[in-house]
Structure formats: C-alpha cells, structure tokens
Amino acid sequence: MRKAMKGNVSLIAGSIMVSITFALLILSFIWTPYDPLAVNPEDSFAGVSMRHILGADKIGRDILSQIIVGSRVTLFVAALAVTVAMTLGVSAGILIAVASRRYQSPMIYAVNIALAFPAALLAIILAAVYGASTITAVTAIGLATAAAVAQVTRRTAHGILASDYVLAAHASGASTWRIIRKHVMPNLRASLLIQASAAVSVSVLAESSLSYLGLGTPPPAPSWGRMLAGSQQYLFVNPLLAIWPGIAIVIVVLGFNLVGDGVREVFDPTLRRSDS
Amino acid sequence: MSLLEVRDLTISFGSKKVVDCISFTLEKGARIGLIGESGSGKSMTSLAIMGLLPDTATISGSITFEGQELIGLSDREHSRLRGNRIGMVFQEPLTALNPLMRIGKQIAGPLMIHKGSSLKEGLKKALELCTKVGLPDPDRILRAYPHQLSGGQRQRIGLAIALACEPALLIADEPTTALDVTVQREVLNLINALVDKEGSSLIFVTHDLPVVSAMTENVAVMQLGKIVENASVASLFHEPAHEYSRRLISAARLAEDSFSGKGGQL
C-alpha cells in the first residue's frame, strides 16, 4: 500500500479528504460538542468562538455538531445511491453490450429515455407518492445515475468486446460468461472506478440539492444540503452559515474524485512504475 | 477421411459475397497456405472454420472437421473445438493478448477451459509451453504483462496459447505480418518445427508468397472470394495457371532480384 501511495499525489490527497469525512462519521456516533438539535435562543447567530467553534444558526443550534451528524446522511446516501447506480448500471451496460443485435437497440432506447429523465423530477414523483425521505432521495439519485453508468459501461464494454484479445479468447473456446469475467470486467475496471468516484460526487451533490428543495431527508435530522438551504436567507448577514456545509461537501466530492483517479493509476499495469 | 473438408463455402454480408463457393480439403498432418490480397476472403474463411464470423454474416456450404459438420453447430458446441481441437494464431500479437492479465494465466486459459485443469496445473503446463516455444526465463515471462514483452515474444506466447491443448489443426492468420523481418524468420521456423513435432495440420493465411512457400506444400490462391488456383508450391512457381498467381510470383521475384542486386526497377 505504501508503494502504491508513493508519488501518487491524487491518491494521498484524496485519501486524506475521504478519511476526514469518515472520521466525522465515526465521531458522530461517539461525541458531538452539543446536541445538534438543541435549540438555544441566546446563541442565535453566534459567531466563531470557543463556545461554538463554527458558530451557531438562527435558533442557536451548534454548526459543528450539525456538520458532524450531517455526515451520516451524506455518506449513507452516497454509499447507497452509488451501490444502486453501479450494480444496475454496470449489469445493464454489460448485458446490452453482449446482447444480440436484435435486442440491443430497444434496450439502448430504454437507457436513453431513463437518461433524459432528471433525478429531481423522479425525486418529486417519489416524494409525492411515498413522502419525502432519505430513501426516496437515494432511489431517485441511484436510478438517474444508473442510466449514465449503463451508457458509459455499454460503450466501453462494446469496445472491449470488439478487441482482438476477446476474439482470441473466443478462439480459445472461452464462453461468453468467462469472457465477461476474465476480459471485460478487468478491462472495464479503470472506467468503472472513475464512474464510481464521479457517482459519489454526483450523489452527494444531488442529495444536497434534493434536501435543499425539501425532497430529501426531512427536518429536523441535519443534512449538509438542508443546512445550505437554511442559510440561504442569511447569506449576506451571516455567510459563514453557508460556507461550513459548503466546505464539507467540497471535501467529500473532491476526495472521492481524487481517490478514483489515484486508484486507477495503481490498477493499470502500463502506468505502474515498478513491476510485481 | 480428411481432417478438414470445406465444400462450396459461401460467406456473405448482405448481398456482398466475401467468400464465393470455395472448396478444399486438408488431410491429417498436411499443410495448406491460403494466399491472397486483403479482402480476398482468406481471413473470413479461417474465421468460418473457427465459428467466429460476426453475426451479420450469412454462411452456406459445408465444413466438416474430424467428421463433424461445423456449419449450423451451436456456439457452445463449436467452442468445445476452439482452442482445443483447432488452435489459432492471430496477426497482431499485442492486441491479441489481454493487457491486464499476466501471461501465465492467459496461456493456462485454454487448459482450464478444455482440460479441466486448475490454475496451478495450468501454470505448470504454461511453464513447459514457454520453454517449448523458445522463450528464455519462462518464470519471469509467466508473471509479466503483455506490454513488458517484445513483439516476437508475444507472438511466441500466442503460439503457446494456440498449441496448449495439442490441437489437430492450427490456423495461423498472417502470424508474422506485424513482426520485424528478422523476427519473422525465427517465428516461422518455430511454427514449422512445432507443427512437425505435434503432427498437427496447418492452415497458413498470408499475403506473402515467399513466406507461404517456406511453410506449406500446397497453396490455394484466393482473389475476390474465390480460389483461383490450388496447386503445390513447386508447380505454382513453375507453371502458374492463373493471371493473379503469375503476378504474385513476379512480385516475389522482383523483391528477390532487388535483394541479390540483379536490378529490378520498381
């Protein structure tokens, strides 16, 4: 692992940022400076001080405590939405790529239709039917991202299936299933890693915007997106209220992107500096 | 009974016939060269025998291998022959190897598919195969990735994969076209020696007449999807019957003459 890290700036910087987020997640179960939901009128809009390290919001809730606890929603949504998106997207993408010509085009159309359907609209529909919750947000984000993942996976897999080494594998008598496992999947890996890290970023941002619109995690549970939404009306009076959750979101998004980039370098033997 | 019998084989894409009613037979242990310019249908013929034609192709006629009709065979049944009874060496030794898989696993592949070998047994056999195809330091090679080997080494790997299950028929599709001329000779000699030793039959596909004359006793000359001449190498050189064969020979002579300094204006 140390060898993989060496000289890999993206991986080092990304790992630090992701670790910070996970540290917050663990911390949220152990300790927070205050109860994140405790209302404290005399601390309304308290600035940065020893009493409230990151200040307090309008009704005097401690910002640091809310950020710490908010990491739960963010990481939960990211993990679940990315799992949904990658599982559905990758299997659909590969299935379409290996399907016979006759079934291919209707499936490609289906993916394109899904792709044209915005996550927010899906979230509104789901929220209207089932009531806004973290789960409806995850489902909406996961499905919308899955279509994009399927699209990219299909194209990449298509290129791999047309390659000489897949023809050579066929010539060695390999079954379609073996070719998917031994040839398509490993050669997709770099592309999947980038897609997964991008999907983390997209879903963190999407969760923030859905919460901002009131379509995600319902109050009072703190979420970074809703903290942003809540701070909007005081943006000129108290910009710090928007900056803290903003920084938290940037760290997660940037961290996962950098890790994705760094890990790709580790997995690609042609980019590797030393061998085995 | 012949090992391979191709009868009235026709392959077309839509209304375009790329292979037009060709027939030839190959006895056990015999060798045939398929020679022709690009687009003459020689590669399509070898893919048809392998059952690897793109699914847009329509195929008719008959190909019997070891008494079994190959046309109309299900993909699953055909894949039992591929890499097992019929081995194939490809033109581009770099792109024909999976860039992310170590060489050892790639050689062990056909053994694991057809012989039910474990990975460990497969790798052990791969070590022997590496030595057989004349690769130095096989231990290191098995652990290497394709990009760490030279073109000639990669083509030797391709040969090791094709011969892993001791096939009755080896199809070599322009195996030396992508290699340096000096390496070409070595690889050709190796194919010659191994095919002799294993007693396999050989279909050697090429566009290069001198190469095919070094490899096989019989040559089928293909042009525009048809076999225009099917003769022994000696009689083809001495009395080519078809216009296209004569052109191939004069092109080969021209190259030879310009080497030996007898002139030969291009």
Write a concise keyword list for the protein shown above.
heterodimer; A: 276 residues; mainly alpha; MetI-like fold; 72% helix; 0% strand; B: 266 residues; alpha/beta; Rossmann fold; six-stranded mixed β-sheet; four-stranded antiparallel β-sheet; 41% helix; globular
Summarize the structure.
The complex is a heterodimer of chains A (276) and B (266). Chain A is mostly helical. Chain A has helices spanning 2-5, 9-30, 63-98, 101-116, 119-130, 134-161, 164-171, 176-212, 224-231, 240-267.
What would the average pLDDT of chain A be, to the nearest integer? Answer: 85
Residue ranges of chain B: pLDDT <50 for 5 or more in a row?
Answer: none
- What is the CATH class designation of chain B? Alpha Beta
Which strand-content bin applies to the residues of chain B?
A: 15-25%
- Major sheet summary line of chain A: none
- The CATH topology of chain B is given as Rossmann fold
Overall number of structural domains of chain B: 1
- Provide a count of the helices of chain A: 10
User: What is the terminal-to-terminal distance of chain A?
Assistant: 13 Å
Overall description:
The complex is a heterodimer of chains A (276) and B (266). Chain A is an all-alpha fold and 276 residues long. Chain A contains ten helices and no strands. Chain B has one domain: P-loop containing nucleotide triphosphate hydrolases (Rossmann fold, 3-Layer(aba) Sandwich). Chain B is built from ten helices and ten strands. In chain B, the strands form two sheets. Chain B has a six-stranded mixed sheet, with helices on both faces. A four-stranded antiparallel sheet of chain B has the order 2-1-4-5, covered by helices on one side. In chain B, a hairpin with a 2-residue loop joins strand 1 and strand 2. The mean pLDDT of chain B is 87.
